[in-house]
């Protein structure tokens, strides 16, 4: 008797697994892939009232710079459709960067792309991961999303597209590839 019950339970569990897999496959077939090229208008100049990246915490007695371990930056970059800062607005890149490599090379990035354009207004894409700051192309993970990007997963690359060192102004191209429902 006892063996019968166990067998029945196992069979039921098997059925549940089969059903779950079928549902999963059906959903997976509906996955949609979106690719975007976005341009972040980034001003990191200290003392500039228009700065969009600002160090807010760091190790006491050390300079709070991008290469100093432990420095935390908060950012709110304006995002545009092309590299031209006057081109149509897409949204904002809001979040934090933490210099997380003891050697100052790697930064940990936690950014929400908050869309305000017509197509994706109100939706967000969540980016999180390590950025090898000194590499020409920095790849980070897209871990989630909301609105049109619910269940988003994928990756994003960051490239410095334009750099004005005296003004501490740069345009960063962010290419996003995501799969979502
Ligand atoms: C995929 O996205 C495009 C563009 O947003 C949309 O037109 C299309 O209906 C979507 N496909 C599915 C299967 O959701
Ligand atoms: C980003 O996308 C643009 C096209 O919009 C392409 O020319 C460029 O090579 C891409 N960059 C990377 C690192 O894939
Ligand atoms: C800040 O932005 C305003 C408005 O775009 C501009 O008039 C001003 O010159 C900028 N200030 C600096 C220091 O760049
Ligand atoms: C985006 O949504 C907000 C709030 O619903 C609205 O005020 C705004 O006009 C919308 N923007 C666009 C470009 O549709």
From TrEMBL:
<keyword id="KW-0964">Secreted</keyword>
<dbReference type="GO" id="GO:0009699">
    <property type="term" value="P:phenylpropanoid biosynthetic process"/>
</dbReference>
<keyword id="KW-0732">Signal</keyword>
<dbReference type="InterPro" id="IPR044859">
    <property type="entry name" value="Allene_oxi_cyc_Dirigent"/>
</dbReference>
<dbReference type="InterPro" id="IPR004265">
    <property type="entry name" value="Dirigent"/>
</dbReference>
<comment type="similarity">
    <text>Belongs to the plant dirigent protein family.</text>
</comment>
<protein>
    <recommendedName>
        <fullName>Dirigent protein</fullName>
    </recommendedName>
</protein>
<feature type="signal peptide">
    <location>
        <begin position="1"/>
        <end position="28"/>
    </location>
</feature>
<keyword id="KW-0052">Apoplast</keyword>
<comment type="subunit">
    <text>Homodimer.</text>
</comment>
<dbReference type="GO" id="GO:0048046">
    <property type="term" value="C:apoplast"/>
</dbReference>
<dbReference type="Pfam" id="PF03018">
    <property type="entry name" value="Dirigent"/>
</dbReference>
<comment type="function">
    <text>Dirigent proteins impart stereoselectivity on the phenoxy radical-coupling reaction, yielding optically active lignans from two molecules of coniferyl alcohol in the biosynthesis of lignans, flavonolignans, and alkaloids and thus plays a central role in plant secondary metabolism.</text>
</comment>
